[in-house]
Structures are given as structure tokens and as C-alpha cells.
Design goal:
Layout (H helix, E strand, L loop, with lengths): L2 H31 L5 E7 H5 L1 H16 L3 E7 L1 H9 L5 E6 L9 E3 L5 E9 L19 E4 L3 H10 L5 E4 L2 H9 L5 E5 H7 L11 E16 L13
Parallel strand pairs: 1-2, 1-3, 6-7, 6-8
Antiparallel strand pairs: 3-9, 4-9, 5-8, 5-9
């Protein structure tokens, strides 16, 4: 064989050994490079997830969890289902709940950081005159509806409104559609979710408007108790 042929054979042999060496290292390298990262899965109502507040909260917590070396995913669900999943530990928590939410959900801990505040408001198509706060609602003359799973509404309304005049829906969209066609007189929900939904073309001629503010509260992250070790820099209650 010529010298050039021997050189080519040696070169090929060296490349083969180098390739085999790389392959032998691959399991260790791939394990280090592709180690699974813990992903925190939080829920929000589908209406909240699509709202400006939901978008803002997603950006905040994506960055917060990234700095802790964690992934982040937000699931948009009906508010009632969101509560049930966090109560049973099927998700890591709920991204936006009132400060007192954990008092009635003992599996959860509150993170004492409030990135946003939330308002509940009453909407109507009629020219109603209501005073702000829950005491301004009539007991048994107007049909009042709220979104199921909204903790404050569920706790307060049954004690203030006759059951025959009170109902609930799963989503903001359902509530607004019933209000628009006259099946209810007042719809109560997060004003941020409602204002976002009212931008849809189907409501442009509906004359739905805000008639009262029921209340405002700080909105906080609530997580299941077993997740607390992942947040050493936050205070828990």
C-alpha cells in the first residue's frame, strides 16, 4: 500500500475510535444535559387565563420559577374544576385567588405576594341603579347570576339573595350570553374577565354595562402544602 493509503486508514481508524469514545460518553452527557426539570403546574379559570391580568401573571411566574430552576405551565379551567384539582393535589396550585382563599381550602398555602388586585362587579343590560358593595343587591326582585368557583361570590351571595333568584354558570361567556338575551338581570364576575369578554363581536350591540362594584381584593398565588420546599424565598401562611 502507498503511504497515502496508510495515512487514510490510520485517519479512519482514529476517527472511529474517537466516535466510539463519544458514543460511550453519550449516556452520561445526555443525562446531564437532558435532566428532567421540575415543572410547576398552576391553574386559572379559562377566562382569567385569556385576560390581560392572566397574561401578566403568566409572565411574572414564568420568570419567578425560571430563577428557581423550575419550569412553569398554566392550565385554563372552569373555576370550580380548578378548585377541585388543587384541593386533591392534582396540580401544584392556583395562580390567582383572594387572600382568604386558603382558609376554606386547607390543602393550600398562600404565598404572601400580591402581584395584582381583583374586582368583582355587577353587570346588567337594564338602566339599574345599585349602590356598590354586596349590600346593594336586591334580595328577591332581580335574577342574579355569578360564575361558579369564584370563592367570594359563592360565600356571600347565597346568604343575601333568595335561592329562587340566584344561579351560577361555568364561564364568563355563558353568563354574558344569558344576560344579553334577558335570561338574567344581573351578572357578577371579575371585571377584568368581563371587560375582556365584552370585546367579542357578539356583544357589541348587547348594551351590557357595569352597574356596581361588589368589592376589591388582593389576588395571590395559592399552592398545595407539599410544594412549599420549592419556594424558600417566599413566606407562607
Amino acid at each position: 500500500m502507498t503511504k497515502s493509503v496508510w495515512q487514510e486508514i490510520r485517519t479512519m481508524h482514529s476517527r472511529r475510535k474517537f466516535g466510539l469514545a463519544l458514543l460511550s460518553l453519550w449516556p452520561a452527557c445526555s443525562g446531564a444535559m437532558a435532566a428532567p426539570r421540575r415543572t410547576i403546574v398552576l391553574t386559572a379559570s379559562a377566562d382569567m387565563q385569556k385576560s390581560m391580568q392572566g397574561i401578566w401573571l403568566t409572565l411574572i411566574y414564568e420568570e419567578a420559577f425560571r430563577r428557581l430552576g423550575l419550569g412553569f405551565e398554566l392550565l385554563g379551567l372552569p373555576a370550580k374544576r380548578s378548585s377541585a384539582m388543587s384541593d386533591h393535589g392534582q396540580v401544584d396550585g392556583e395562580i390567582s385567588r383572594p387572600a382568604n382563599y386558603a382558609q376554606t381550602h386547607p390543602n393550600l398555602l398562600r404565598v404572601d405576594i400580591a402581584p395584582i388586585s381583583a374586582s368583582l362587579a355587577a353587570y346588567a343590560t337594564q338602566a339599574l341603579v345599585l349602590r356598590d358593595n354586596w349590600g346593594g343587591l336586591p334580595h328577591a326582585s332581580l335574577r342574579i347570576e355569578y360564575r361558579a368557583g369564584v370563592n367570594t361570590s359563592e360565600n356571600i351571595l347565597p346568604g343575601r339573595v333568595d335561592p329562587a333568584y340566584l344561579s351560577s354558570v361555568s364561564t364568563t361567556l355563558q353568563g354574558l350570553r344569558k344576560l344579553a338575551i334577558g335570561r338574567t338581570d344581573i351578572y357578577i364576575d371579575s371585571d377584568d374577565a368581563v371587560e375582556q369578554a365584552l370585546l367579542a363581536p357578539e356583544f357589541q350591540l348587547a348594551k351590557i354595562h357595569k352597574v356596581a362594584i361588589m368589592g376589591r381584593s388582593l389576588s395571590m398565588l395559592s399552592c398545595i402544602k407539599k410544594m412549599s420546599p420549592w419556594y424558600p424565598v417566599w413566606r407562607w401562611r
